[in-house]
Specification:
Elements: H1 5-14, H2 17-22, E1 28-30, E2 33-36, E3 48-51, E4 56-59, E5 65-66, H3 68-76, H4 80-90, H5 109-128, H6 134-143, H7 148-153, E6 157-159, H8 165-172, H9 177-182, E7 186-188, E8 194-196, E9 201-207, E10 213-219, E11 228-230, H10 246-249, E12 257-260, H11 263-271, E13 277-279, H12 287-296, E14 299-303, H13 308-323, E15 327-330, H14 339-346, H15 348-356, E16 359-360, H16 361-372, H17 378-392, H18 398-412, H19 416-447, H20 461-476, H21 478-487, H22 496-512, H23 526-540, H24 547-567, H25 569-580
Parallel strand pairs: 12-13, 12-14, 14-15
Antiparallel strand pairs: 1-2, 2-3, 3-4, 4-5, 6-9, 7-8, 9-10, 10-11, 15-16
Helix pairs in contact: 3-4, 12-13, 14-15, 16-17, 17-18, 17-19, 20-21, 20-23, 20-24, 21-24
Length: about 575
């Protein structure tokens, strides 16, 4: 641990967990704690709790947990040291730049951000180079009809058709091959050779809401594949947690945001005055991106391509955005394949009218089903009605379902009672399936099956439960910590994960004379930290957490460990050898 416990303690003291969490989500007091909707998964009933007494948080829905440092790591997609630095900068504490979580100099977030800025300058200069960038300028200005001011506004650039142009430039600027590879600007070839990842592409910088260039997207200027290349996840960037042009759209989207499929659509809309447009980054919308939308706007209008892939993506966007409480509609760009083409053909006033007349999910699904089937044919009418019933059954609100049942009744000329019975049957089957799935999940959780954090728990259920209870009690009270360290050693633990936790706790307590969960996070992932937090949270919820309980758990664990040792293969071999003698 290279950052002293005193500095970590000071950072956490100045960044009270309620204040840190409430800067991202709305919290409501619940007794001595605070509750809110979890920012890490979609939920209708808040299951996220902040515990001021222990300066920790835990979500009883998805299992995320930890302290203020872990929370910032998850929310901002940061490593441990970067999260420490972010919280430190908020509270005026200086952290040396060369410190890493394992004592080695690592490629940190800030280094990648600085490198990205230098790369963006290189791409921009290449675009406006009279000779080098001519092909890209012709594409952007003549073919895509973008003005020089729009190009500069979005910081567009050009990656030359050269395997080493950017690499050589960044090398001269003081960046290493390792930093370029980790930052996903270069790739590694045979014999450890390094080459430019983006070549002969128009470049789109991805800028976060703080103004940092976190990544790039590169588009070909012909019909070659792949059409787009995008930066993969780096210490400075996570694709699923960012949106293109949100840095501009965040100032214009309080009432409505437009979700597009690609960078060019967004730029075309911004150029036409629709500055509330954003796009996902080369993938379908994720649950994390849906939650970003819910932070900035009340309503999203989906403007995807009219092809099958676009419609499938729209289906997913509808579902994820509705889960986070956002009102969702979709517009159809008839006569054009995408918003960019539509605006060029018909103008921005017609596109504005499209937004005003955008359709609800029910209308969108109904149109899609009616286009697919001929409801004048009895068999096709049955298939169409079954599909629409399945759509209506997905709406949680009874009032909404009732309204859509009436509309469906008129379209299909069917009695509302029949439609209602079919929908009720679908919901009943779905609930039964969900209940069975939930029971299966509970069984798997209790039996440790599929436990990625501690895979040995399934074969050591009893021992693991005792180990987790002991660690939870040790974290709960200082006297329990001292007793546990006095009576236990690492070898008394059965599962490797709990061994590692105990060893880390033991080393830190011996070194510092105290313990805080913030001290160990450099050695554990956010999911592992969440499991450790869960051990503490589960003990806190129990009424009996005295010394006698801890002593009984320690004795019981030792007995179980001794029994396991006696039954081990090595012990059996020794016993056989002894009998032979």
């Amino acid at each position: 641990m290279n950052i002293s416990p005193e500095i970590i303690e000071d950072i956490k003291f100045r960044n009270n967990i309620e204040n840190v969490v409430s800067s991202y989500i709305t919290l409501k007091r619940a007794g001595s704690n605070f509750n809110g909707s979890c920012p890490f998964h979609s939920e209708k009933t808040p299951s996220f709790t902040v515990f001021p007494a222990t300066q920790s948080f835990y979500c009883f829905g998805c299992g995320a947990g930890g302290d203020a440092i872990t929370f910032v790591m998850r929310m901002e997609n940061l490593d441990y040291i970067s999260a420490i630095r972010l919280l430190a900068s908020r509270s005026g504490i200086n952290i040396p730049e060369n410190i890493s979580s394992n004592g080695k100099k690592e490629v940190g977030r800030q280094r990648i951000l600085d490198m990205n800025k230098e790369a963006a300058r290189f791409f921009r200069d290449a675009l406006f180079d009279e000779k080098v960038g001519k092909i890209a300028r012709d594409y952007l200005i003549e073919k895509r009809q973008l003005s020089p001011s729009v190009i500069k506004h979005f910081g567009l650039g050009y990656a030359p058709n050269n395997f080493g142009a950017l690499h050589d430039h960044l090398k001269k600027a003081g960046y290493t091959d390792e930093e370029m590879v980790v930052g996903f600007l270069c790739g590694k070839g045979k014999n450890n050779s390094v080459y430019d990842y983006f070549r002969n592409r128009v470049m789109f910088p991805i800028i976060d809401v703080s103004g940092n260039i976190v990544a790039f997207g590169g588009r070909v200027m012909d019909n070659s594949e792949p059409k787009y290349l995008n930066t993969s996840d780096t210490p400075a960037f996570k694709k699923s947690k960012n949106l293109f042009a949100l840095n501009y759209a965040k100032n214009h989207c309080e009432n409505t945001m437009i979700l597009c499929e690609g960078y060019m659509d967004v730029i075309a809309l911004h150029s036409a005055g629709f500055e509330n447009a954003v796009a996902t980054l080369g993938t379908a919308i994720t649950s994390e991106q849906a939650r970003i939308f819910s932070r900035y706007t009340k309503k999203v209008v989906i403007s995807y391509d009219s092809d099958q892939a676009g419609q499938r993506a729209a289906d997913k966007a509808f579902r994820l955005l509705q889960e986070v409480g956002v009102d969702v509609k979709i517009l159809k760009t008839e006569g054009a394949k995408d918003p960019d083409e539509f605006i060029k053909k018909f103008g921005k006033e017609k596109f504005s009218a499209l937004i005003d007349n955008s359709k609800t999910r029910f209308e969108f699904e109904t149109d899609k089903i009616l286009a697919k089937y001929n409801i004048n044919d009895m068999n096709e009418k049955i298939k169409a009605s079954n599909e629409l019933c399945a759509v209506i059954a997905t709406y949680p609100s009874e009032i909404e379902r009732e309204l859509y049942i009436r509309k469906m009744s008129k379209i299909f000329e069917l009695p509302t009672q029949s439609i209602q019975r079919d929908i009720s049957a679908i919901i009943k089957r779905k609930n039964k399936s969900q209940k069975a799935s939930l029971m299966n999940d509970v069984y798997r959780t209790r039996s440790g099956i599929g436990d990625r954090i501690n895979p040995e728990s399934a074969s050591n259920l009893g021992a693991n439960k005792k180990e987790e209870a002991i660690i939870g009690l040790m974290l709960l009270k200082d006297e329990h910590m001292k007793l546990g360290l006095e009576k236990l050693s690492t070898n008394d633990f059965v599962t490797s994960f709990c061994k590692r936790v105990f060893e880390s706790i033991s080393n830190i307590y011996k070194e510092c004379g105290k313990f805080d969960i913030g001290y160990i996070q450099g050695d554990f992932t956010v999911d592992e930290t969440a499991r450790i937090t869960k051990m503490l949270t589960e003990r806190e919820s129990l009424s009996i957490n005295d010394t006698k309980t801890l002593e009984e758990l320690i004795s019981s664990l030792k007995e179980e460990k001794n029994k396991d040792d006696e039954d081990s293969f090595d012990s059996i071999l020794k016993a056989i050898e002894k009998k032979k003698k």
